[in-house]
Specification:
72% of the residues lie in helices and 0% in strands. The chain has 268 residues and is an all-alpha fold.
Length: 268
Amino acid sequence: MNKIKQRYRYSAVLLKQLVKTDFKLRYQSSFLGYLWSLLKPLFLFGILYVVFVKILKVDYGVPNSGIYLLLGIVLWSFFAELTSTSITSIVGKGDLLRKLNFPRYVLVLSVSLTAGINLFLNFMVVVIFMIISSVAVSKESLLAPIIFGELFIFALALGFYLSALFVRLRDINYVWEVIMQALFYATPILFPITLAPLWLQKVLMLSPLAQTIQDLRYLLVSKQTSTITDVYNNNPYIRLVPLAITMILFVTGALYFKSRSKYFAEEV
């Protein structure tokens, strides 16, 4: 028991140091430093808001459409950051792998927590806009941490797969960039899901990414947001599908990562 405690205590200490180091190094040489973690999604939001809301006049069908759009961008930015940084998390720490014996999952978890810190900072900006706009918050918003957790686990599951695959297949980085472009337009971030035909809505909303973004918009911004339950005629059990996809990906991703981790030091 003492050995187990010592092992996980060492992993926790290492994880803490890696998160601190990754967060510091990311903005070390920039003039604005940590502010970039807030400014990047805000700049993207400003551009998309002008193009889609002011110029193209896209009707999201909900009040506070600006916050509705901003929350979607913040959540997407978190997902994109976590998965993209996970890809190189193992290869980028090759020297550390060859010198120290520690659980390899710590490397993926460290970049995931760094992305989580950025998500928290960006979400505080969303909260400020919500307060300024007097967005009504109901008791249902207390369920938001659960949905955030689902999104985190889904992204982490993909991170396990991508980081392990990248050790042997360096083309994964380019393949994932293409997949991310497709996912961005297949997820209702820039457009209301109701613009798509019903059959396509049903397909898109089975994605844990689309489901969590819409659920968080529903809980935090507007009850007029179309969720997976609405798309499937108020069937409460349909929520189990994206949840099952998330859990299956997480379990299989963790197992695949574990099976490949013993070869990482030799292959990076």
